[in-house]
Amino acid sequence: MEISSHARPASLARGEALEQQVTVSSPGEGWAALVLQVPGTCWGRAEAGVLALTVDGGRRQEIIVATGEHPTEYVRALGALGPGRHVVRVEHDPLLSATPASVVRVHSMRIGCLDSRSESAFVWRHSPVLHYRAIDSPLDSTTTDTPLVLFYRWAGEDLEYHVIYSHEDEGTDLTGLLARWGHTTDIEWVLRVARDPAGRAVREEFQGPGHRTCLFQGMRDFGHHPVLQVATRNGLVTDRVHVPHRVALAPLLAQPPGEPREGVQHRVPWVYRVSALEVVRQVPLEQDPVPASLAPADPRCYLYVQWTRVSGPAGPLETLVRVRGRWYSSAWGRRELACEGPDAESTAVKLPAHTTEADVEAIALRALSVPPAQAEVRLVRAFFLDGGYLPRPPVASGGACRLTSSHPQATVWSRDR
Q1: What is the DSSP letter of 221?
Q2: Contacts 24+ apart (CB under 8 A), 170-173
Q3: Which of 111, 182, 255, 266 fits as disulfide partner to 346, beta carbons 3.0 to 4.6 Å?
Q4: pLDDT of residue 371
């Protein structure tokens, strides 16, 4: 429920602040949604403006505005709020902001509180507070691998929280990210909460360094929220905090039913732009895409294909795209680059320069090992990025195919159908 809004735009110079008073009638989980713009900055140059967001003079968190000139809504959790009056303050941090970030424009600020009796209350109450990474600098997240979005999903009674980072500095290289996962971001589950039959949280786990599942035994803040620390260059965490700066990403988004994790990014398309700008400045790319080469190219040179496994084994699978009578592969027939595992349901296929939607004739899937049983796969969407690295309207969506030991390759979509 929204309880207050500040619709008049404000421009905050370094050290300037904007305050808003809110009155909460019943206890719940607070949130703030701010539409922000930082003129003169670009994530492609590793520049961001930073705002300090506080509630009642405490509970400080930082908003790293990585979207530069483009006004974008940033939604943050404020934690547990009791009945009564509260003061929410945003201040332009002069020390953490990049030099060109002389002004942060707050186009609007909305504040609300989710009632503790709401159906979503459990999701909000247990969402993590994430401390930013500081491995290679005093605060790495202001220039690289910054956490952008938190989403959640249910697995039976277990609740998982996943973070989408702008990229990863260590782990899977760009060729592998595009081929095996179909994104240039880094998507990691960070916290899992197990519930008993009565709906009470009985165990919390986090994904630690080395992708180990660890029992959470750390601090709590913002009410009863678990506190985690980004501890590696590929988005893994610990429950031991050593960096003061942090963020409470609001758990607004659930993984869309019938879609892969990457479907979340389609709900916040600006994530594609931020990630692509980071990749272009950090990774050596082919000047002209050579589809037969494993070298990565500009993110706009790929067709992104998202699908889901309806039934059957979990891989390894590769995607094939036919352009002007010729097939191109996401994995080049190599198992180590194929989509394998329950969450590997998205890929990207490098295509010849200047390929457009009209040039795409068909999309197929191929099993790189003989399926032990029939596998059914459903196409969610296939799309290109536009000149500004945002998703274009889908080339194709819908359709399904079956893969068997006798027919390990099948067309899931064709322009002729």
Answers
A1: E
A2: 170/232, 170/233, 170/234, 171/233, 171/234, 172/234, 173/296
A3: 182
A4: 74
Torsion of CA 42, 43, 46, 50, to 10 degrees: 90
Three-state DSSP state, 44: helix
Mean pLDDT of 57-85: 96
Contact between residue 184 and residue 279 where contact means Cβ atoms under 8 Å apart: yes
Max mean pLDDT range (25-29, 311-315, 391-395): 391-395
Cα angle 123, 89, 22 (rounded to 5 degrees) comes to 65
CA distance 275 to 237: 20
How far from each other are the two terminal CA atoms of the chain, in whole angstroms?
Answer: 46
Give tens-digit pLDDT for 290-338: 999 999 999 999 999 999 999 887 789 999 999 999 999 999 999 999 9
pTM value > 0.90: yes
> Is 351 in contact with 291 (CB distance < 8 Å)?
yes
Instruction: Using DSSP bridges, classify how beta strands 220-221 and 225-230 pair: parallel, antiparallel or unpaired.
Output: antiparallel
Higher pLDDT, 341 or 174: 174
Residue in this structure with the two tokens 């998202």, named with its chain if needed: 306
Q: In what order do the strands lie in the sheet with 253-254?
A: 212-215, 201-208, 186-195, 158-165, 147-155, 253-254
- Name the token pair of 234: 């590929």
Q: Which residue do the tokens 């067309």 mark?
A: 411
Cα-only R_g, the chain? 22
What is the C-alpha to C-alpha distance for residues 199 and 184, in angstroms, rounded to an integer? 36
**Best CA proximity match to 190, nearest among 170, 216, 167, 166:** 216
Pairing of strands 225-230, 129-131: parallel
Domain ranges for the chain: 1-116, 119-273, 288-414
Pick the CATH number of 1-116 from 1.20.272.10, 1.10.3720.10, 2.60.120.260, 3.30.530.20: 2.60.120.260
- With H, G, I as helix, E, B as strand and everything else as coil, classify residue 142: helix
Closest C-alpha among 354, 379, 348, 363 to residue 414? 363
pLDDT (tens digit, 9 = 90+) per residue, 107-122?
Answer: 999 999 999 888 899 9
CA 52 – CA 55 distance, rounded (Å): 10
